[in-house]
């Protein structure tokens, strides 16, 4: 009996080993699956590569990096003189009136090559008042640059270097960006050299920040620090979606809130500057403000839509057209005005000499007026049109 039991045990053990071996073949050779599905080792390798590639933005960075440059500027400033130098007693003993000393101040920033003919887009504050500008390309070459034109009201500037065949960046399609999209910021933070940071689009159309006159910023949490100004904000395909411009910071460093000028605005300004050397906007001579719920209640307005006329320049286009303080401007050439920022954009889009149809509300009564726009004078950071 014991002999038979030993034989039975050996047979059971052998069967278990055989079943285990067959199961192991399924793992060792994926092409032999119990359900008949065939997966090759090559397919498994390709799947792994695809999964790894999904976590990298190396191709986007590789495509855009050659188009981003470092900008170094310098200017001469006069140091304030000591009040003792104007003292008659001081002059009596020293016998001369020393002039104030001059000192060169340097600044750094970034820029984006937008044309193979040497045009570079950057922030106006990067090159403001500079008397010497040097551009360093990604390949290490250093070239002198000249300012073609600036637009302080959007904080944009165009530079030119005498070098053809430069690697120009590709512009993304206007309005292609969405909240939640992954973006990369490329620039020269703190002068350490070209660097890439990654984040997402936190918000679009940010305004009323007091940074520029015309604001419609992309907000991102991609790290933007001093030196990144004027650099590129790109999408995961390496296309330019914005020009890094400003940060919100209490310490001077990145706090996860950065702002970039959208490519739709940057490209429009860039083309005007290259073509004419500057930017021309319409103006009608009014001061406006947003309609808050409190203002709407005070003026007995049905909603907060539109822009309240807070002031009218005497003798200006709006004054001649019959616009009065207290009017609410609701449409310009049939386009709705939602707030003061929208109105600034609609008026600025008018060409000097162009006549615009304005729809206003005066004492809750609709009124149609026509106004002839003039050329907008330079008024930085003012809600005046």
TrEMBL record:
UniProt-annotated catalytic positions: 125 (charge relay system), 155 (charge relay system), 229 (charge relay system)
Keywords: Hydrolase, Membrane, Protease, Repeat, Serine protease, Signal, Transmembrane, Transmembrane helix
Transmembrane domains' residue ranges: 7-29
One of the Pfam families matching this protein, by short name: PDZ_2
GO biological process per UniProt: proteolysis
InterPro entries: Chloro_Bact_Ser_Proteases (IPR051201), PDZ (IPR001478), PDZ_sf (IPR036034), Pept_S1C_Do (IPR011782), Peptidase_S1_PA (IPR009003), Peptidase_S1C (IPR001940)
Positions of the PDZ domain: 273-364
Residues reported in the UniProt entry to bind substrate: 125, 155, 227-229
Highest taxon in the source lineage: Bacteria
GO molecular function, one term: serine-type endopeptidase activity
Family: Belongs to the peptidase S1C family.
Descriptive protein name: Serine protease DegQ
Organism this protein belongs to: Sulfuritortus calidifontis
């Amino acid at each position: 009996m014991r002999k038979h039991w030993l034989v039975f045990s050996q047979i059971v053990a052998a069967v278990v080993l055989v079943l285990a071996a067959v199961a192991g073949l399924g793992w060792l050779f994926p092409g032999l699956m119990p359900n008949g599905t065939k997966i090759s080792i090559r397919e498994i390798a390709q799947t792994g590569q695809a999964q790894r590639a999904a976590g990298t933005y190396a191709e986007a960075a590789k495509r855009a990096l050659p188009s981003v440059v470092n900008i170094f500027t310098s200017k001469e400033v006069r140091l304030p003189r000591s009040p003792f130098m104007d003292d008659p007693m001081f002059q009596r003993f020293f016998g001369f009136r020393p002039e104030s000393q001059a000192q060169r101040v340097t600044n750094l920033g970034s820029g984006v090559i937008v044309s193979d003919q040497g045009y570079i887009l950057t922030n106006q504050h990067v090159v403001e008042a500079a008397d010497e500008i040097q551009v360093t390309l990604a390949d290490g070459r250093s070239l002198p640059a000249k300012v073609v034109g600036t637009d302080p009201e959007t904080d944009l500037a165009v530079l030119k270097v005498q070098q053809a065949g430069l690697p120009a960046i590709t512009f993304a399609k206007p309005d292609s960006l969405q909240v939640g999209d992954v973006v990369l910021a490329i620039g020269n933070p703190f002068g350490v050299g070209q660097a890439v940071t990654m984040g997402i689009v936190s918000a679009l159309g940010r305004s009323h920040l007091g940074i520029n006159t015309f604001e419609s910023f992309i907000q991102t949490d991609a790290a933007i620090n001093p030196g990144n100004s004027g650099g590129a904000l790109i999408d995961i395909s390496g296309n330019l979606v914005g020009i890094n411009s400003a940060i919100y910071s209490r310490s001077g460093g990145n706090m996860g809130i950065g702002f970039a000028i959208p490519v739709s605005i940057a490209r429009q300004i860039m083309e005007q500057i290259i073509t004419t050397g500057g930017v021309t906007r319409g103006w009608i001579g009014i001061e406006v403000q947003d309609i808050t719920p409190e203002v709407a209640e005070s003026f007995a307005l049905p909603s907060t839509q539109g822009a309240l006329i807070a002031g009218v320049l005497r003798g200006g286009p709006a004054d001649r057209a019959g616009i009065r303080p207290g009017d609410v401007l609701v449409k310009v050439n049939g386009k709705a005005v939602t707030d003061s920022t929208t109105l600034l954009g609609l008026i600025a889009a008018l060409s000097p000499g162009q006549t615009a149809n304005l729809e206003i509300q005066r004492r809750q009564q609709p009124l149609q007026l026509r106004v002839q726009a003039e050329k907008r004078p330079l008024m930085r950071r003012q809600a005046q049109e």
